[in-house]
Amino acid sequence: MDKRQNYGGLDRFRIIAAFMVAAIHTSPLLSYSADADFLLTRVLCRVAVPFFFMVTGQFVVRDFFTCEGKALEKFWKYCKKMAVLYGAAILIYLPVGIYAGHYKELNAGLVFRMLLFDGTFYHLWYFSACMMGVALTYLMSRLIKGKRLKTCAENSAEMEKNIGFALTVSGFLYVIGLLGDSYFGFLKEGTLVYNVYMQGFRIFSYTRNGLFMAPVFLLLGAEIGNRKSNFDPLKRQINCAGLIVSLLLMAVEAFTLRNFGMQRHDSMYIMLIPTSIFLVKTLLTLEGPSSKILRNISLWIYVLHPAMIIVVRATAKILHLTGILVNNSLVHYFAVVFLSVLAAAGISKLMESSKKENFKCGRAWIEISKSALRQNVTALRKRIPDECRLMPALKANAYGHGALLIARELADMGVDAFCVASLEEGIQLRRQGIKGEILILGYTHPELFPLLRRYHLTQTVVDFPYAVLLNRYGRKIHVHIGVDTGMHRLGERCENVDRIYSICQMKNLIVDGIFTHLCADDKLEKPEMDYTDLQVNAFYKVVETLEKKGCGRPEIHLQSSYGVFNYPELGEDYARTGIALYGVLSTKEDTEKCKDILKPVLSLKARVASVRNIYAGENVGYGLKFKAERDMKIAALAIGYADGLTRGLSGGRGTALIEGHRVSVVGRICMDQTIVDVSDIPGVKAGDVAVLIGKSGDEEISACDLAKETGTITNEILSRLGTRLERIVV
Ligand SMILES: *Cc1c(COP(=O)(O)O)cnc(C)c1O
């Protein structure tokens, strides 16, 4: 199994595709050779738009054919997003269009034609095509599904059949499109078909639109997205070879059509379909993290490059540089691309920072350090054998860090197996689009077994009677068998090998894995080490017995965070790491030992709500527990025990950092507020930020400190951080 799976290749190619579109609109080689320019811009660069359609298909259209519950929601969400973008782009180009006289003879028909098919500016047809194509594929998915509308496609063969059917329909549409595009010359003037096309061209200028061109590529994207991406180098070579051959054939096709004067337009070719398939398949075999920044930048290059063409031409005119900046097509192209990238990066940055601005107004929040998380993942992967994969524990909202945020970041790092405590946690992750294996470590009520299947979740067999219930449900369920080797919490007892064997034989259980949990692996002292040895031996004995009895060897795992550090030799198929992934261990002492390897991922911050002076002898907070001995300045922080700041830190046990100064808690921590003594810090004011966990200046408060102070472990401090806190990635 591979540890990497992501869409880095696709995201990187988006930028290239955007450059290709800019090339189509500037003809970079025209100063040198018309044929070369035709090859570049009318053939090679024609893969750009189908590529964009396919990516949309993979991430949007595919879901129309899988989980119907989400399809409509997904459809609307996409349409809304695109409509906003399209609207913005229309506004940006409105003045230019007016100046150029595009809208002179405006009437209802023309508005309809421009909005739905041609675009209000030449490159904007793409947005309407996307929306129309997505709408069409959505309709197709509904029609094909018919009465199965309410249930989830549990059967991927069924799903592929459905996509295949829709593909056939859209293939016909594509053929119709071809005849109005590159193959128009095959239609004889005066025939019925020819006349039908001519009527059509009164509604749209080209057949390369959302009706004839977009659906087939959207569905191809959905179809390819079904398959798990694959980093097999052989596959990469095959796809790459396929790409080169089909590009060559497409060039032959295009030049032939051009020579015989067949082309009315040059956007659609037969070979464009295999070329696009091989292109996307090749890109899916490339590694690399996916990148939202690249996605945004490519989008804005697409939207803005025609404006940059105008800017370059105007600048050239003013500076009397038309000879070089415009007349040399290659220089012109690079100038346009350069400015487009600059503008796109600027806009992306602006949008990014406006998001951050928003959060800067928060009351109390958690910051997740992406780089710390990445570092911990790398460090843990180094400590486990190559064949062993991380199965991060995302239970309890990822130990308070925010399960979805963490899952997304981890997925970006190629993690594709997770464990959670409950069914509900698993469902939440699936609903937000988390893929890969999700193992539920705890109990799921039998009434809820159907949800295990609907959301493709893997259930832990918590003991033998539970296995009987799971089996009795009557439909196949993926499970990992828990084995109790001495913790005596969950899992079937290891002595009962016969019962475990019969679990393996149950016909409705698909036993993907078997595991145990070590309960004393955190201490390297004799009693604990002996106990761990007993547990480990008992577990392997069960595994071996099962293997001897012909059950095969499902995936096995027994390490959690401490196991990875203290018993590295136990790395098997998975390491179920929780606390270490978040950059700390359960106690301050253990965390200190690993401080060069693990970096704390979470910071907890709160706003200063109000600053005031109090006078000697006055009380602060509930219960008259604090009486000022001198005149002081105090600040109320907008965070309390409802946010997870435990009340045990009241009365000076807890501290906060403001501008690098350490201040201590005064009186009792309230539900929503905490008061601190800021007498010694000049200039503190409402709106300032206080750090409850994390760094400020040279000072640091770690979750371990809070644990130590309140007599618990880091795990509890973190996992109790409240849902009211905003969580953001920095
Ligand atoms: C929570 C949990 C883990 C993760 O433990 P950490 O010590 O946080 O790494 C692993 N396995 C099981 C069964 C768990 O319940």
Automatic annotation (TrEMBL):
Regions crossing the membrane: 12-33, 39-61, 82-102, 122-141, 162-186, 206-226, 238-257, 299-319, 331-350
Catalytic residues (UniProt) = 395, 622
Give the binding site residues for substrate. 489, 671
Q: Which GO terms describe its biological process?
A: D-alanine biosynthetic process
N6-(pyridoxal phosphate)lysine carried by residues? 395
Q: Offer one Pfam family short name for this entry.
A: Acyl_transf_3
InterPro entries for the chain = Acyl_transf_3_dom, Ala_racemase, Ala_racemase/Decarboxylase_C, Ala_racemase_C, Ala_racemase_N, PLP-binding_barrel
Q: Where is the Alanine racemase C-terminal domain?
A: 601-730
NCBIfam families for this protein: alr, vanT-G-Cterm
* Protein task: Catalyzes the interconversion of L-alanine and D-alanine. May also act on other amino acids.
Family, according to the entry, reads as follows: Belongs to the alanine racemase family.
Q: What is this protein called?
A: Alanine racemase
What species is given as this protein's source?
Parablautia intestinalis
Q: Gene name, please?
A: vanT
